[in-house]
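Protocol step 6 of 9: fold each sequence in the batch and record its C-alpha cells directly after the sequence line. For illustration, a two-sequence batch is reproduced in full.

Sequence one:
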Amino acid sequence: MARAEIKETVEPVDTILSKIVYIEESLGILNEEEGEIFLEELKKEIKELKKSVDNMKLKLLLSGEMDRNNAIVNIHPGAGGTESQDWAQILMRMYLRWAENHGFKTDIVDLQVGEEAGIKGVTFTVTGQYAYGYLKPEAGIHRLVRISPFDANKRRHTSFAAVLVYPEIQDDITVDVKEEDLRIDTFRASGAGGQHVNKVSSAVRITHIPTGIIVSCQSERSQFRNKELAMRIVRSRFYDLSIKIREKKLEDIIGDKKEISWGNQIRSYTLQPYRLVKDHRTNLEIGNVDAVLDGDIDGFILEYLKSVKIVKNGVNK
C-alpha cells in the first residue's frame, strides 16, 4: 500500500478518535453551572462526528476495482416533455450539490437545454477519490410525483429520468478504440456563451459506430479540447462496456438501463399528496425531501452499498 493511501486511511480514524475524546471530556461541562450554554456546540460536534463515521463506513464498502476512479454521470429525461425535462434538471442540481458538499470537482461536458424549461440531457464529470464508488448506486430510473408547475389545472404528474454512471478510465489503461470505428462531427455550441457560441463550430460529437456510443462535448472554447474530453468519455464507456459484456454483468456498473417508465424506478420522490423519498431496492424512506433534493443522499448510498455487500457475502438481510 502506498504511503498516500496509508495516510488517507489512518488520518480519518485519528480524527474520529480525537472527536470522541473531545465529546466525552465535554460532557462533564454540561453538569457545571451554566454548562447548558455549551449544549448546542456539543450537538454540532456530535453531528459532525456522525457524518465522519458515515463517511468512514462508506469507504469501507468501496472495494470495487473502479471505485476509486472519477465518475462520468449522464442524465436524460423520460417521456413527458417539459415536465420530465424539468425533473432531469432537478436531479442534475441534486448531484452537483452533493458533489460540492463532498469537495468533489465537477465539469459539465455536454448540456442540452429544453425549449421551455429543464434539460434534454446532460453529461458531467465528478473528479475526486471514490467519486465513482459513491455515485454508482445512483444509476437507474428516478421517479417524481408532484403538482406540476407547468399544468394550469394544478394536477398531479408523474415524471421519470434516467441516471447512468460510468467510471472514468485512467490513461495507464489500454483501450483499443480504432480510429476507423469513429465518426467525428463538429457543430456550434448551444446555450449561453455569446458570440463564440454562435459563430464557432467548437463543439464535438464522437460516435463509436460498432457499439453506437455517442458522446458530445461543448464545454470548452477550443475544438481540440472538446475533442479530447469527448474521447476520454468514449474510452471510458467503451472499456466499461467491454468489461461488462465479458462478465455478462452490464447492469452492475451503469445501472439497469430499462425503459424510463412506471415500474422500473429505483427511487421515488413524492411531493404530493405527502412528502417522502423511498428507495425501492433497500426500502429506505426519508421524509425530508428538500434536504435530499439539495444533495443529502448519503443515506441512500450507504444503505444500498451495505445491502449489496450482504448479498455478495451470501447473508440474508
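Sequence two, same batch, same settings:
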Amino acid sequence: MILGCAAPSPDEVNIGRVAALRMGCGHKVPAWTVMRNCASGMQAIDSAIAQIRAGRSNLVLAGGVDALSRAPLLFSDAMVHWLASWYAAKSTGQRAALLVKFRPQHLAPIIGLMKGLTDPIVGLLMGQTAENLAFRFGITRAEMDACAAESHRRVLAAQRAGHFAREIVPLYDPSGKLYAADDGVRGDSTPENLAKLKPFFDRKYGNVTAGNSSQVTDGGTWLVIASERAVEKHKLVPRGRIVDSQWAGLDPAQMGMGPVHAATPILQRHGLALNDLDAWEINEAFAAQVIACQRAWESDEYCRTELGLPGALGAIDPAKLNADGGAIALGHPVGASGARIALHVLETLERTGGKRGMAAICIGGGLGGAMMVERVTQ
C-alpha cells in the first residue's frame, strides 16, 4: 500500500501504514507514505508502477489523502525559543527573568496551512504565483471568474447526471451525519456573484480570489494497480492502463505551468497532438493557472522558448477539458488530487467511449506531473 499525503497529522505521520492496518491488510503488507505536494497521490500511483516493474509487487493499493481542515496552528519562533528557555531553566530566578521577557504577541498563532502553501525558495504564496501567470498571459478577472463559475456549473451537472456515482463513496462522520457527495460546489457561484469577492493574495492589484481558487477541503482517493500476473491470478477486470507518466521542474514562481511541462513530453513520445486525446483533467489549483496552461500551448513564443518546440501546439477542445468540473468546485485536498484526476479521466473515458486521456497537475515548488491513461475494453 502506498498513500500520498502532504499534511499528515503528527500522530499519523506514516499515514499509509496507519491506513493499511486500520483497513485490515495485515501486519505483513508493507505500507508507506509519499509526499510530492499537490501530486502526492499521483506519485503514489507512479511509485506503485515502479514497484511492479521492478518485480517487488504485483498488487498495490495506491492513492492519496489529506484532511486540510485539521491543519495545525503553530507557535511562533519567538514562543518556541521562550518555551525552550523556560524548560531549560534550573532555578526560580531564571524563570522569573524569563517571565519579564514574555510578550503577549508570542501567543499569536501561525496558520500551518498558510506556511505550507508558501514557497520557501521564492517566498510566495501559491496564489501569488497564480497572480504572476495572470500578469504574464494577460488573464483578466472576468476570465478567471467565468472559469470558476463554469467549474461549479459542470460539477452540478455531473452530479445530477450521476457521473460521480461509481467514484464517490458516501461517508458518515462520528456523529452519524451522511456526506453523500462532494459538498463544496455552489449553485450561486455565478460570474456576477464571484465578481463581488475581493482579491486575497494581492489585495491592491490582484485578481485571484477565494472564489476563483481551489477550495481548502478534505478528501481521499484509492486505486488498485495490478500487474498482468495479478490480473490473471485474482481474475480482476481491468478498467484502464497507465500508458506513460512524466515529472517536470520549472521556476517555483511560475509553478502553475507544471501541467504544460509534464504533459508535453508524453505527447511527443507518443506522436500525439493535444486533441488526439479524448479527455483532459488539469487540476484547477487556480482559474488563472488553468487558463495560463491553455494559453501557453497556444503561444508560439512559449512553446519555442520554454518547451523547445517549433511552434504552438494549439488549443484543447473545451469540451474535453475538465468535463465534469474541477478543484475550484470540488476542492483540492492536496495529497489526494493527483490520484483523483487520474481516476476521473478514466471515468470520463468510460462514459464517453473515449480511448486515451491525460491527467496533469501543477505542484508547489516548481514541479509538474502528468499521466496518460488508456481505457481497457473487454
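Proceed to step 7 once all outputs are recorded. Observation for sequence two: The first strand starts at residue 2 and ends at 4.
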